[in-house]
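Model: Ready when you are.
Researcher: Fold this.
Model:
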Amino acid sequence: MTDHKQLRKEIIEKTKEFYKARFENKTFEAGVSKVNYAGRVFDEKEIVNAVDASLDFWLTEGRYSEEFAEKIADFLGVENVLLTNSGSSANLLAFSALTSEKLGDKRLKPGDEVISVAAGFPATVTPIIQYGLIPVFVDVDKDTYNINIEQAEKAITNKTRCIFLAHTLGNPFDIDAIMNLAEKYNLWVIEDNCDAFGSKYKGRYTGTFGHLSTISFYPAHHITTGEGGAIITNDPLLAQLVRAFRDWGRDCYCMGGENNTCGKRFSQKFGNLPLGYDHKYVYSEIGYNLKMTDIQAAIGAAQMDKLEMFCEKRKANFNKHYSIFSKYPNYFNLAKATEGSEPAWFAFIVTVRKEAPFSRDEITRYFNSQLIETRNLFAGNMSKQPAFVNKNWKVAVNLDTTDNIMNNTFFLGTYPGLTDEMFLHEEKVLDEFIASL
């Protein structure tokens, strides 16, 4: 009988060969090949890890989950990293944790208000509505695309309990100002760090300032596991609550395959259950099942080794876009990094000026006809999206800049798979478009 360890070695070697045959030596041909706004960047290590995890056939959290979470914790310098199945689930779990009765008077309750923005991605706002709280939409700054701090303070009332914001497309919001507001008014802060994993604010990584933060590992983001996300916190109680909401709402914190970690599995009293009821089947929250698989974590563990390089490439690619578009200052308003920040840009943000002799839709149609992908800044103005019409939300002052973004803003990719040939093609296409006016 063939030894399974030897077979594993042979499978791994064949996997490396497969990577070289299937994925190496791709070439770009201008006007024929597509310039994607995002994409997965990987080598044989991610595929080898995924195959290795598959051969274990340990399908839920396992050894690779532990490795992946530890690498994230070491990178950010944080205590608790809880893996989940998407960035949207990470946002849901972070917000859910703050609704727990275990937080006493500090828990979020239906009718409370949460400061947020309408110029962003729905997953930052939907948990607020789903739990019966009220999003208060604050306008954003036209250069950083992040929350207008002056309006943010004006939006705070005696019902405000939380600030839930994303670092827009990798550009950190003014974290000092937000954390000062949180301290002044005793508010929770959730950092949606899904587009900014690896960005820095005053020398410190984003995602390490708020009470909770979230990361997404969707293929468009800084690293990928396909689908996947994580919740970050230095607060042990919040970590316990996130884990409970993620794992069906159960009170037990044993890892998969483990039992009686607390040593009190059959000796405790919970709710109206009989004394000694099996702790593995005690549910202290109204929860979900939103765990990550070990195969996904295996891919993430390999991706983490590339994160710093990926971030440097994103910064360089942003600068390449900037040199191309800055030739036409009368036509475009280009994003600026928040003061004191070092963005690992998710994208290159462009707003077509009102005085330009063309619209956002005209230039994006032209770019896409030349196989250069563009995207609008997500929902544009969330309050005008079909799902949010007639829902219970408020506008703080006005959403004038948000409306301008909805009508005139688009972005291009900064992901590490972009090449110099792609940027040459982009410059040629932009110059041709401007010359045709």
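Researcher: Now this one.
Model:
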Amino acid sequence: MLRNTTPFLVSSLYYPSIMELERYEGEGDTVIRKKGVKFGLGILIILLLIDIVASFYFYDLAIKRDVKEFLTGNKDLEVSAQAMDEFLKGDWRSWYREQPFERWEIESSDGLKLQGYFLEAKEQTDKTVLFAHGYLGDGQDMGMYAQHYHEELGYNVLTVDLRGHEKSEGDYIGFGWHDRLDMVQWIDTLLDKKGQDTEIVMHGISMGAATVLMTSGEELPDNIKAIVADSPYTSVYELFEYQMDRMYHLPDVPVLPTTSLVTKWKAGYSLTEASALDQVKKAEAPILYIHGNGDTFVPTAMSKELYENTKSEAELVTYDGANHGESFVSHREDYEAKLEEFLKKYMD
């Protein structure tokens, strides 16, 4: 009997049954799946951390008030020698310094002290231009345009330092969104100081152009007769999306949506809500769009899209060969003629 059962006993001791093999294999698959899930989660966490770090980096890079070295040497901002000479050495600089500008100050709705500079026209007039400068600029940068409005057109001039710039308070750059509410306050201040008969044209360049367009969608007094937007962008998100691809060859997702969340947390606005495009769909004042066809920093297509979606009366002028913000210099005679034609149509 023992001799007959020995093979069975031996086989039972050393060879698992089919059911046991299946159980072992199942447990092995479970272990592998668990390890795969842990590995996948680890990768996701690493990617998330990279995304968060990158988002804070881009917030500091573009939005936090600070020195912006990333613009140095940017080929998209290269302008003609003629334009560079005018920007740096034009007689408008000495003209601006010699003018008796009054310094005005307002407090924004969120408690920031903002600075403005008012220049009375040589002869009494109800016409005033309210300027908005570009990214990293200040009120003085609009002196080249101010000289034309003041000397040739006979306008009063009010140019301001946008929040986060020059002498105005603020630890972030609003890219026009919070600035639109500041502009409404500047309009109210202008009417309080200079009378309810004041006729106002808002004129902005680059970020300042987006600012006046964002302002256009607010509830404005009838005193706003016209708006001039030179080289504007459609929205902050679309501008950043374009620049991320152009400068860093990166897609917008996932970094830009997370950067938008960081901006909402730290600066109080998201990149998507800061939209000139949405605002011009509600605009009542007529708008003149100006853009250089050679602009590679803010593509000309953005002005075309804005123009096509503007609720109010609008005109679009483009200049061949002009890079970002240089149309006034490179095509000055035609620029001034188009501007004066537009203003005569809408300024009483």
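Researcher: Key takeaway?
Model: DSSP finds 13 helices and eight strands in the chain.
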